Structure formats: structure tokens, C-alpha cells
Amino acid sequence: MRICLGLLAVALATLTLPCPPVNASLSKFKLFFGNSPGLVPNTTVAYGEELYRGFHQLEANGDWVVGPRDSCYCEKWAKSHGTKDEKLGAIVAMFIVFGSCVGALIFYGVAAWRTTCGWEEVYVCVIELAHVLIAIFHEIESPSTLYLSTGNQVLWLRYAEWLLSCPVILIHLSNLTGMKDDYSKRTMGLLISDIGTIVFGTTAAMSPPNYLKVIFWFCGLSYGVTTFYLAAKVYIEAYHTVPKGICRKIVRFMAWDYFGSWCMFPILFVLGPEGFGHISAYGSVIAHQVLDITSKNIWSMAGHFLRVKIHEHIIVHGNITKKTKITLAGEPVEVEEYIDSNEVDPAEMDQVQDKGTQALAHRQSFLVMRNRMQQKGVEVRASLDNSDRDQTENGMGGGAVTMGQWGMGNKAVGDPGAMGLGMVTKAVEEPAEKMGPLEPGRVILCMPDVALVDFWRLQFSSLPAPFEVYPAVGPDMTLQLVQQSLQLGGPSFCDFVLVAPDFLQNPSPSGLVGRLKMMGMRVAAYGWQPAGPMRQLVETSNVDGFLEGPTAPHGVNRSQFSALVFRMQQLKKMASMAALGAPPSMLPPTTSQHSTAVLASSVPNPLQSDSIPAAFPGQGLGTPTTANPLFSVMNSSPPSPLSSRPTVPAPMGAEGEAALMQQLMAEINQLRAELQQ
Computed over its alpha carbons, how large is the radius of gyration of the chain? Predict the structure, then answer.
């Protein structure tokens, strides 16, 4: 920005440069004879119309011209730039460009404050503003225009502006989305070909009107064709990368604008004074000012709106991409398309990647746009929300352990009837490094089929503590496993049940989640999404915690997953302490939901009767009504809680009971200390 302001100051400083005198006294002028023979020096007469800067037509005699002393005047050269009407049109066109540049800079300034604004469009606008300011007052003066001994006119000011602005336009083109932090090999190719075009074009303008001019022009044209080829590949790839809808329409418009305006520059070169002089210098200025508006101002404005729309898409739908293969110049190319999580086809899950918003949380533009979108009532990405600021700063922004507040319905945090509060509310706020170590545990998976069983086994095996994973297909088998775990060790035998979103349709007490909670079991769910019907489904299911994902190929966020498991273990400890009769003042704060779940384990429940068959044969609860498809017929019993049945401890004396109470008190104090942090 400082560089842009400095260039603007230089352009304004040129306005103070001295110009040839117009209303100077006649004593400084010398008469030059036009058509009549003879010279009348030091003649004081009235002079009228200005033919050129400092040269005037005498009112008394149209054959005489008055001009600065020791200066010469060529009538043919003065008129070679164009007629008076063309000159007026050129000045008007330059003032229009000046006004559009000023308006664009004001707009970009407001956009940088309200949404986002790239440096490329601001830089190009400042360069164009400096160029038009100089051109308005010194367009045909040296060194803005170079007059060579060969009679050629070289508009060096125009070529200098191209050298300063066109490479930045191509840098913007190579990063249309604004999401890349570096530039690729293709960017370098665009810059090299563009510089070659301008260099050979300038050389052709300096060459005499013969075969040399034609040769250099074709050399520059070859570089320009290379630029167009690389730019076309960028546009095609960008079209398949940006989100569908308005973003793709903007990319298509930018492509038409780019090729339609840039292809006119070599044509104007041939027709203008640099080429073969079919149009005057002023006519060339008018045409180039029109092209400057379309190729720079309008194109940059469209690129700005494209980046804003992509920012909005990421803030609402997340940084989710899908790998898509396209054919580009006869070669297969793999691009990553920004998609909505609701548009994901289950058959294409292996091509979907959730890059997370952690790397974007440090960008002030994302935070500003998020706040303004929230003020308008737009649901934004959870990991960019204010409640997740600590989570993002501690490297947990890639996913979201979304527990607690979203499961409360319309109840306040302090409401004793609120769902999902207590220790669970800290899951999205407390960094993983502040949590205690995980303990070995057991978890039951409630899956619709066997597709994700191996995936979740892998996720639990990656935890720092060993976990026994018991899969079940469908609600019936899940209830059977929970029933057996309750008989083996009560509610504390199993840490929690991880439920697929397929079984969250019924949030009533007769649903799977309600029945599990009545049995005193903790329930977590996966499949939460930042937008769409899945978000409402999971948040209103009354589970104790829920997790975003999994998304291919990264699965779930490890830190978030560990936080979810840790909180489930804390809830299990709280239930165990409540069952042992710890004083209420010593228990950590919990919810009525958890208290009800604990009491349900000690009250006779029809769900715990013999009407529900055992999940595994030979355990005194009858034969299972359905075989578990996760295991073979010969060995239908999985490595279940029964295979690692704990031995019944011998009756303890007074010393053993005292030691148990001391251990229990130590755990209670540790939990209270963690809650107070």
C-alpha cells in the first residue's frame, strides 16, 4: 500500500512540472514566416488561436505564426497527432479513466474494511491512475512520447504502464481464488511470456516501417499467443475449481473480458502510429483508454467479487474440496473443486477432502466477513465462530467436537434442564493439551453396516490409550451389547456408545438414544456438518457429544476426537461417583439428563428384562434373535466384554475400603481442579 501511495504521489508531482509558456509577452516571441517571403522580426501584433503549445496564429495575417524564441515549428508534425475533435475526445476519455480509477480505489478501500481486498487490484488501479494523470498533461511530450530520428513516434508512457501493470494482472489471474500463498511454475510462464510480448512490441514500435517492424511484431505476437494459451488453461482449471453457481459465471465473464480486450492491443498497434499510421495518435489514445477500462478496471473488479464469493462459501460451507479429473489441452489434470457438504455423493467420499479452516483463521478478512455475516443472520462455519477462537488458536480448527451448547435446544447454560452441559460444554473451548490423559476403555459402535467398522477401529487404535471396540449392526444388537456390558460391570464397564447419524431420526425416549440413556449409557454421535439437515439432526438428538466428520481422506480431527473420548470418560467417572453415593457438594456440576441416566441403572427397566435377547450366545440371556453379520457363523461371538470378564474381587476389609475411599476422594479433587481451570 505504501508503494501504491508513493506512485500516486509521483504522478501528482508531475503536475507541477513547467509547461511551455502560453500567455508570455510578445518580446519573448519571434515571428516565423509561413507562405509569404520575407521576415519581419520583433513585430508586436495581436495573436490569436493556439496551434500548438506556445505557437499561435497571428490574427492579422493567417500566414504568420508566433512562437517561443529559438524554437521551431512544423505544421505537419503538430497536426500529425490528430484533429482538434480527436484531441478533445482523447482528453475526455482520459478523464473518464481517471474518474473510474478514483472510484475503484474508494471501493477497494471500503471493501478492505468490510470484506476483503487483494493487493493486485489495488496496485493495478494505482498504476493506471498515475499513467492517466501524466498522459492528460504530458501525453505527447518527451519522454512520455519518444520522437526518433527515423520519424517514428513511440508512446513510451503506455509501454511503461504495461510493464508495471500487466505482470500483476497475470499474478492475479494465476490465483483467482485468492487461497494460494505461493505461485506456481505456470505463473512464471505467464510473466515471462507477457514481458517478452511488451519488449518485442516496443522494439517493433522503434523500428522503421519495413521488414524489421514486421519481424519484431511477429516475435511479440508469438509471446502473446503463449500468454493466451497459458491463460486459457488457468481459466479452464479455475472454472472447475470454484464453487458452482455465481462463481463459475464470474470466471466465464472474466475469460471473455480478458481475451476480448487483450486481443485488441496488437490490432491497435498495427493501425496506430507505432505501426502503419492508419489512425492518429489521439485516436489511438481514445481506443486504448476504452481497453484500459475493460481489461484492467472491470476485470479487476470481477476478480475482486470472485474472491469475496469464495470467502463467503468457505465461511458458510467450510474448506471442503473434491478431486475432479478434467482434460486440459489433451492431458488429464486433477483439480480440487470447492463443494458444499450437502452435495457430497457417498460414492465419491474417497475424493472429498476437508482441509479445515485452521489455516484461514489468522486471516483478518475471514474474521471480519464472518462477523458481518453473523450480524445478517447467516450461519457460518463453526470453527470460525467466536466460541471456537481458543480452539482455533490451539490448532484445533480443522474439525469440531461440537458438544454442549448446540444440544441444549432453547435453554440457557445455567438451566438445570438443559441438555449436554456440565463438563461437556468445555469440549469446544478447552485445548487438548489442557486435558488429562486418556484411560484404557471400551466403546460400542452402532453402525448401519460393516463399511465403517475398520475405519473406527483404526481411529480408536490411534489413541494414546488402548481401547476395546465392539461393533454392532443396527439398534437391536447395540442394545444387546449394552445390556451385557451392564450385567458385567454396570454403567462404568463401557465408556460410551458411538452412534451413526442413521439412528438419530427419533429423538423421543422410545428412540435408540433415549433407550440407551435410560439404561445409564453415555451416547456420542458422528456425522455433524456445519450446514444442512445433518446439523439439525445431530444437534437435536440429545446425545452427550457429537463429532464432525468423518471426511475423506483425513477422517476425523485427532485432537477433536481425543477431546470427545476424554469427555465421555469424565462423564463415566461422574456417574460412578454418583452411584457410590458421594456427597452432592463434592460432585462436579452435571445435568439432570446425566443424573436421570445414573438413576436409571438402579431402577428396574423393561429394556433390561429377558425380553431382549443376548448379543452373544451362552450367557444366560437366551439365544440372539439375529446373527451379528460382523462375525462368522462359526464364531459369532466377537472379542466382547465377556471374553475379558473381570474376576470378582474378594471381600475387602476396613483397610481396603479406606484405601478405596482415599482413591475416590483423590479423583474427585482432581476433577474439581480441572473444572475450575
Answer: 39
